[in-house]
Design a protein that fits this description.
With 126 residues, the protein is of the alpha+beta class. It contains five helices and four strands. Strand 1 (27-31) and strand 2 (34-40) form a beta hairpin. The N and C termini lie far apart (28 Å).
Length: 126
């Protein structure tokens, strides 16, 4: 079966309750310039959210660009994580917060996302 490189409606973390619970009870780590929050859930599947501070990027155009680049880097690499049996059974909520003051390029975010996935694999399986 071919890999699905999509980021559909069901894969987006949009529920305010779920996001609040993630920030309150979830675990976190940083891979500069991204702070990662994650929490295993009872429902199977992988849900992902992203945020960029309006205090750091005053213009919505800049915030939206960073979010778009982060979502794209995630979309292309999420299959490694989604194929793990533990995540298929239990599920995972994941949230990225971009904290740097400079506008990133896609290659940088792609590499950082790969490092985040490695670190997340180690934390979930080790």
């Amino acid at each position: 079966m071919a890999k699905q490189f999509t980021l559909g409606k069901r894969e987006r973390l949009k529920s305010r309750k779920a996001i609040d619970l993630l920030f309150r009870e979830g675990q976190r780590f940083s891979q500069a310039p991204i702070r990662v929050f994650y929490r295993e859930t009872g429902t199977p599947g992988l849900q992902f959210g992203v945020a960029v501070s309006a205090k750091i990027f005053k213009k919505a155009v800049d915030r939206n660009r960073v979010k778009r680049l982060l979502r794209e880097a995630w979309r292309l690499q999420k299959n490694e994580l989604a194929q793990q049996p533990r995540i298929k059974d239990k599920g995972l909520h994941l949230f990225f917060i971009y904290t740097d003051r400079e506008l990133p390029d896609f290659d940088t975010l792609y590499k950082i996302t790969a490092l985040i996935l490695q670190k997340l694999n180690e934390r979930l399986n080790g």
